[in-house]
Structures are given as C-alpha cells and as structure tokens.
Write a structure and sequence with these properties.
Length: 151
C-alpha cells in the first residue's frame, strides 16, 4: 500500500505539471507536430492547422519563450521568419509519438494512413513503452516510483 503522505510529496514534486504548463495545450502540440513534419513558417502552420492567426502567434511566441522552438530569419528570404525545433523541442518527439499511439488505440477509429518508419529499413518504429535499462519492455506491474535518493 502506498503511503498517502509519500504519494502527496511525489505529486508535489512531479515534473508532469511543469511540463504541461510549458507545452500542454492542444494547439502547441499540433504546432510541434507540424514542426516535426517540416513546417517552418507562420503561413505554413496557419494554413495547415487552420488556427486563428492571433492564437498561432501567441503559441509560437510561447514555444520560442520556452526554448522549444527558435525563431530566426529565413536564409532564403530575410523578410520571412522561420521556426526550428531546438534540442529541447526535439526531445518532445517520444511524447508526441506516445500521444499519437494512444489516440489511435483509444480515441480514433484505428491507425491513421501515415506510419512513422525507420528511414534506412522502411520498417515501422516500435511501440512507445517503458523499458528497463537493457531495453526489455516493462508492464505497469513491473514499475514503481521511488525517491532518487533510494537508488
């Protein structure tokens, strides 16, 4: 049985809330999906997502402020601005893949027509799931939260 006070402390220190505060909003995730799929310009995001210009501007500014995207002049046309994923933004790929996988399983009517593959082998990537240090898949029953000091 989980000690209730220990559980409360773990929840207070959980970084999920901080991550959601930084990124966790529908349009931000869809902008990130677009960036991972090669969109770089305001107009591309706007026309692809069908998002209102003011909302898009706000979300892009927030993603730049949180160093998930970087804003820089487009080398092809210095009058335009391009948005590129930072290393911090690139690290969100597993999160987006997990959300997509969950959505295909539980929300949508099944897998979408697009599938992410390994470019070299053309084989679909493996399912996103917890793995041990040696890469073996773990089930929920094999997982436990512990304080870092206990390791």
């Amino acid at each position: 049985m989980l000690d209730l006070e220990r559980h409360r402390e773990m929840l207070r220190n959980c970084s999920i809330a901080a991550a959601l505060e930084t990124v966790g909003e529908r349009w931000s995730f869809l902008i990130l999906r677009g960036a991972f799929n090669g969109l770089h310009h305001f107009e591309e995001f706007q026309s692809t997502l069908g998002i209102a210009r003011n909302i898009l501007s706000n979300r892009l500014a927030r993603l730049v402020e949180n160093e998930i995207l970087r804003r820089e002049p487009d080398p092809a046309d210095r009058r335009r601005v391009a948005y590129h994923l930072t290393d911090k933004g690139l690290d969100l790929l597993p999160v987006l893949l997990s959300l997509r996988e969950w959505g295909e399983r539980w929300v949508s009517s099944g897998p979408s027509g697009q599938v992410l593959v390994d470019r070299a082998t053309r084989r679909p990537i493996a399912s996103m799931q917890p793995r041990d240090a040696d890469g073996h898949p773990l089930s929920r029953g094999q997982l436990e939260w512990v304080d870092r000091s206990e390791l």
